[in-house]
Each structure stands twice: as structure tokens, then as C-alpha cells.
Amino acid sequence: MQPGLSASANSRTDTAYYSPARDLAATAALAVDHTLYQRYDTVWSQQLLAGGGSYWQKNHAAGAITVLGYGQRLRWNNVVDTGVMLNWDKRPYDGKRENNLAITLDANIRF
Predict the structure, then answer these.
(1) What is the structure's pLDDT at 94?
(2) How far apart are CA 73 and CA 15, in angstroms?
(3) Does residue 11 belong to any structural domain of this protein?
(4) Where is each PgaA membrane beta barrel domain found (predicted)?
(5) pTM
(6) How far apart, in whole angstroms, are the C-alpha atoms of residue 9 and residue 56?
(7) What distance in Å separates the CA atoms of residue 104 and residue 83, rounded to the nearest whole number?
(8) What Rg do the C-alpha atoms of the chain give, in angstroms?
(9) Strand order of the sheet with strand 42-57?
(10) Which residue, among 58, 72, 49, 61, has the nearest Cα to 97 in the 3D structure?
């Protein structure tokens, strides 16, 4: 289970980017990890993420948040670990629910 809680307050709302006066988001997601291949220190796995929550913005009604994700990780050895994750979410912005699709690439190198 992956909980999430975020809030913000902005003094300027007349900006070119999304900047609500006040907002609050609370989410919870279930993450599942499945090993596809393992040999000694090398591990190839896939991850599935699904969850939801609620988003509130000042001067707008609260709305639902939906989150889905799929990714794969490759732990090459005890030193190098890499991954890719495709995330989709649907959440309200200024009272209207909008879709967001993102790809995350990451690498961990232990020393």
C-alpha cells in the first residue's frame, strides 16, 4: 500500500501555470511486484500500481483521483538497478477532470 498526501497554498493565481489558491489531495494505491526472471544477482521484475483518492481545490467541489501504472525493473547485480514506469492518472484541475500520462526512467547505482 502506498499512501499519498499533499497540500499547497499559493499567493499568486494569475500565472501561466497551474497555481490554485489552496488545494489538498489524498490518495492510496496498491503496488504489486512480480519477478519475471532471476539468476544469481540479476532480477527482472514487473510492477503494477492501482489506486485512487480525492482532490479538493478552493472554490471548486472535491473530485476523484484515479491512478494506474505499469513498470519493469532490472537489477543487473548488487550495484546497478534500473527501471521504467508508465503512469496514467485522472484528476480534477479547476473543477474539470483531466488525464495525465507520464513515463519515469530511473537508475540506482550503489557505491
Answers:
(1) 86
(2) 38
(3) no
(4) 2-111
(5) 0.81
(6) 12
(7) 8
(8) 18
(9) 2-9, 22-39, 42-57, 63-75, 80-93, 96-109
(10) 61
For residue range 4-19, what is the model confidence (pLDDT) as tens digits?
A: 999 999 988 788 888 8
Domain that holds residue 37: 20-109
Q: Which residue type sits at 46? A: Q
Q: What is the number of domains present in the chain?
A: 1
- Rounded to whole angstroms, the Cα distance separating 73 from 31 reads 14
Confidence of residue 81 (pLDDT cuts 50, 70, 90): very high
pLDDT tens for 15-58 read 888 888 899 999 999 999 999 999 999 999 999 999 999 999 99
Which residue matches cell numbers 491512478?
Answer: 67
Write out the H or E segment, with its range, that includes residue 90.
strand 80-93
Q: What is the dihedral of CA 40, 105, 92, 17, to 10 degrees?
A: 160
